[in-house]
Amino acid sequence: MVKTKIVGAAGRFGARYGQRVKRKIAKIESKQRKTQQCPFCKGPAKRKANAIWECKKCKKVFASHSYYLEEE
Question: In Å, what is the CA distance from 56 to each residue of 1, 18, 29, 53?
């Protein structure tokens, strides 16, 4: 996968879509791939699919925001 300093992993799109769009995508993707905090037990939750999350501690599968759990 191609990465650049400015747009990170969104560098895979090459010369297409423009720098502003790629920066927005890179910001969202870097945030969504991090382990989030489960709202039930405060354990680590990871995104399984679009808006589907699974807690690794209590094993609950729940729906929430698409890309990352809400910040408090």
Answer: 28, 37, 20, 10
